UniProtKB/TrEMBL annotation:
It comes from the Bacteria. Keywords: Transcription, Transcription regulation. Gene3D superfamilies: 3.30.450.40, Winged helix-like DNA-binding domain superfamily/Winged helix DNA-binding domain. InterPro entries: GAF, GAF-like_dom_sf, GAF_ANTAR, WH-like_DNA-bd_sf. Residues 56-151 form the GAF domain. This is Transcriptional regulator.
């Protein structure tokens, strides 16, 4: 696990990393570094979060890839021990999980008790995904103040369900929260575009639809294009048919 000293993060880095991760091939060696940077920048750009971490899958199970403080590590481990909690739910379902008042939850008794002991009141876990669309980690934000993450949680959850969204309060977010929301929206849009290309390639080879993403990845590597550009090329070619 990587921990890091606090420092002021440059505006725009969080959004760039979230969108960049969504367009990164699954086998890219820089993914772990990207996850560490996301946790680092989120911890400094989101004032409502007293601690941040990233949960991933290791050889021996779930692990905390990076954390801004021991507070997040303790909260993460409580969930690993129970094999249940918001960070694991976000990782396994690919959907954000908001817990505005942890003391009121009955779903995760281990986290509830640990949170009571260390003073965590609220959390938000956000899935992080790479080029194939697979969720590889969850970004976990923890706050000592109940409801402190509510505005951000609403914005992130509505980004995943824009058709049913009532509209999040843009003015109710600070600069860092707006940047994170924009990053999540951008990452979801990029994933949708890459998935469209994967579906088109799968339709070209109905006998082996599972080869669609590897073929897109190979195409990008052989042409020296990014995965995003390769996906755009596939879509353009099919539109011209």
């Amino acid at each position: 696990m990587t921990s890091f000293p606090e420092h002021r993060a440059q505006s725009g880095v969080l959004m760039d990393r979230l969108v960049g991760l969504a367009g990164t091939p699954d086998d890219c060696a820089t993914i772990e570094t990207d996850l560490i940077v996301v946790a680092q920048v989120a911890a400094t750009r989101i004032p409502a979060a007293d601690s941040a971490s990233v949960t991933g899958r290791g050889r021996d199970g779930y692990e905390t890839v990076a954390a801004s403080s021991d507070l997040a590590v303790v909260a993460d481990k409580a969930q690993y021990g129970d094999d249940a909690g918001p960070c694991l739910q976000a990782l396994t379902t690919g959907r954000p999980v908001a817990t505005p008042l942890i003391s009121a939850t009955t779903a995760w008794p281990g986290l509830r008790e640990t949170a009571r002991q260390v003073g965590i009141r609220a959390s938000l876990s956000i899935p992080l995904f790479t080029g194939s669309g697979r969720t590889v980690a969850s970004l976990n934000l923890y706050s000592r103040r109940p409801g402190a993450l509510t505005a951000l949680s609403t914005a992130i959850c509505e980004a995943y369900d824009p058709q049913t969204a009532h509209g999040w309060d843009h003015d109710g977010l600070d600069d860092g929260e707006r940047e994170m929301t924009a990053g999540v929206i951008g990452a979801l849009a990029l994933r949708a575009m890459i998935q469209q290309a994967i579906r088109l390639l799968a339709a070209d080879a109905p006998a082996d639809p599972g080869s669609a993403y590897p073929r897109l990845r190979t195409r990008a590597a052989e042409t020296g294009a990014s995965l995003t550009d390769a996906a755009a090329q596939v879509i353009e070619e099919h539109q011209d048919r």
